[in-house]
Amino acid sequence: MYIDFMGEKAGIRLQYGSDFTLYTAENGSLVSYKPEFMTRDHFQNEIDAFVRCVQTGEKLPSHIDTAIVTTGIMQAIYDSAAKHKEIVL
């Protein structure tokens, strides 16, 4: 599972729970970079966040309030692309 972020000068393929690859052009050729870094297990992070929220009463990062804000930002990105102009939130 992955998600692609496409730009005019570069793009990134983000592997779910893993790393990412950056694609761009340099000197007329397509190049890719795959940074290596140490991370904790993504699924363990999700479990730890859930347990912490149960213990402390804080909201999960995936709480509906966050999802609503994120959805608004994503819609503004689509609207900006369709209208070819900046969208002010």
SSE order and pairing:
Blueprint: E1 2-6, E2 10-15, E3 20-26, E4 29-33, H1 42-56, H2 64-83
Antiparallel strand pairs: 1-2, 2-3, 3-4
Give an overview in words.
The protein has helices at 42-56, 64-83, and strands at 2-6, 10-15, 20-26, 29-33. Strands 1-2-3-4 form a 4-stranded antiparallel β-sheet, with no helix packed on it. The protein has 2 helices and 4 strands.
* Tally of separate helices: 2
Average pLDDT score: 90
Radius of gyration: 18 Å
Helices and strands, in N-to-C order? EEEEHH
Number of separate strands: 4
Question: Features of this protein?
Answer:
89 residues, alpha+beta, four-stranded antiparallel β-sheet, 2 helices, 4 strands, 39% helix
Question: Quick gist of this model?
Answer:
The chain is an alpha+beta fold. The chain contains 2 helices and 4 strands; from the N terminus they run E-E-E-E-H-H.
